[in-house]
């Protein structure tokens, strides 16, 4: 690698990985806990009204709450320049919770998409068939599949010493150490295909068909059309921002590490490294964006959530110019909803 490239990597690592990434994790922790807590409470209040889809929504919330409590530890880790002080076992638990959140969210978003597809395209076939028992059984199956996919990750080494002359465990790897990168790449590709690509194809198939039905049938209520298209927009946003970049650059980064291990450093290593670090910040935003699905399904205006957040800040005596700016930014974002 050239001196310029090495300097670029060091600059990016010191400014993004050790400053921006901890800030993103802190933001997601605060906003994610508030938004998901409020959404789950609203879900429980409307439990009987929503129907059987509430089971999938509740499990989506559980997936978020499994990951959010680990964010302060990850923020501290990156802020301290990759010094993990919480032990090997907790490092593996933290990474396992991230995977449960990521692939659990993808799984339950897929279930919600299939549910909406059946409700719009095959409403007569669906009536009376999707019971609470079946919804619970499907949810248990999703958790089992996600756990089986994520469990092998626990058996790869997750920690190593930053200083080779000491035995202190300091690094907590997102994937694994370079020594096992080749085997981990094979596992990661298979995991991506089963845990991400297949649900994505199912989701695209469902909403592709739904879009055709909505465009062709004039008998479908205009409000139903608008809500379905909005949900499609939310899911496209989630996958485009959070999931697709992460999986692409995670596997490319692993492949680059394998090539470097065999002394064949690719010319695109620098770009992939930077893109992968950015995608790691973006993927955790799913815990902030997932509540949009709750709000849409429960037909709660997003403005109402923003207003309650603003009132919460006011009660904490944080009604400053910064809070007002944050409120204005959120109102600008929700103009599409």
Structural description of this entry:
This protein has 337 residues and is mainly α. The protein has two domains: 3-300, Rhopdopsin 7-helix transmembrane proteins (Up-down Bundle); 301-337, no CATH class. The protein contains 14 helices and two strands, in the order H-H-H-H-H-H-H-E-E-H-H-H-H-H-H-H. The radius of gyration is 22 Å and the shape is globular. Residues 35-294 form the G-protein coupled receptors family 1 profile domain.
Termini distance? 47 Å
| Global morphology | globular
- Per DSSP E runs of 2 or more residues, the count of β-strands stands at 2
Computed over alpha carbons, the radius of gyration is 22 Å
Strand percentage lies at under 5%
CATH class of the largest domain: Mainly Alpha
Q: What is the second-level CATH architecture of the largest domain?
A: Up-down Bundle
CATH fold label of the largest domain: Rhopdopsin 7-helix transmembrane proteins
**What's the structural domain tally?**
2
CATH superfamily of the largest domain: Rhodopsin 7-helix transmembrane proteins
pLDDT < 50 runs, ≥5 residues = 1-5, 315-337
Mean of residue pLDDT values: 81
Strand order, sheet with most strands = 1-2
Please provide the ordered H/E string of secondary-structure elements. Answer: HHHHHHHEEHHHHHHH
Secondary structure topology:
Elements: H1 3-45, H2 47-50, H3 53-67, H4 71-79, H5 88-121, H6 123-126, H7 132-150, E1 159-160, E2 171-172, H8 181-216, H9 222-261, H10 269-283, H11 286-289, H12 291-297, H13 302-315, H14 321-333
Antiparallel strand pairs: 1-2
Helix pairs in contact: 1-3, 1-4, 1-10, 3-5, 3-7, 5-7, 5-8, 8-9, 9-10, 9-12, 13-14
């Amino acid at each position: 690698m050239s001196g310029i490239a090495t300097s670029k990597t060091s600059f990016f690592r010191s400014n993004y990985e050790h400053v921006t990434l901890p800030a993103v994790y802190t933001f997601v922790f605060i906003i994610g806990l508030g938004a998901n807590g409020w959404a789950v409470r609203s879900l429980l209040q409307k439990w009987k009204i929503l129907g059987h889809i509430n089971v999938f929504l509740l499990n989506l919330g559980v997936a978020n709450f499994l990951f959010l409590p680990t964010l302060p530890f990850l923020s501290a880790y990156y802020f301290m320049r990759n010094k993990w002080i919480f032990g090997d076992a907790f490092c593996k638990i933290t990474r396992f919770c991230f995977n449960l959140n990521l692939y659990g969210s993808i799984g339950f978003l897929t279930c919600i998409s299939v549910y909406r597809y059946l409700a719009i395209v095959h409403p007569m076939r669906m009536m009376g068939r999707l019971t609470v028992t079946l919804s619970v059984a499907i949810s248990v199956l999703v958790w089992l599949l996600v756990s089986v996919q994520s469990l092998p990750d626990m058996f790869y080494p997750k920690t190593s010493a930053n200083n080779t002359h000491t035995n202190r465990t300091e690094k907590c790897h997102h994937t694994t150490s370079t020594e096992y990168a080749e085997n981990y790449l094979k596992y990661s590709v298979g995991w991506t295909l089963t845990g991400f690509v297949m649900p994505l194809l199912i989701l695209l198939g469902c909403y592709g068909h739904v879009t055709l039905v909505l465009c062709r049938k004039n008998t479908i209520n205009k409000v139903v059309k608008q809500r379905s298209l909005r949900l499609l927009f939310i899911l496209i946003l989630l996958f485009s921002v959070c999931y697709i970049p992460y999986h692409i650059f995670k596997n490319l980064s692993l492949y680059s590490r394998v090539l470097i291990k065999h002394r064949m450093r690719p010319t695109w290593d620098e770009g992939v490294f930077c893109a992968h670090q950015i995608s790691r910040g973006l993927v955790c935003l799913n815990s902030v964006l997932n509540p949009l699905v709750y709000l849409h399904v429960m037909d709660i205006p997003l403005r109402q959530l923003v207003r309650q957040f603003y009132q919460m800040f006011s009660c904490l005596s944080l009604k400053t110019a910064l809070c007002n700016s944050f409120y204005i930014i959120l109102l600008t974002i929700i103009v599409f909803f």
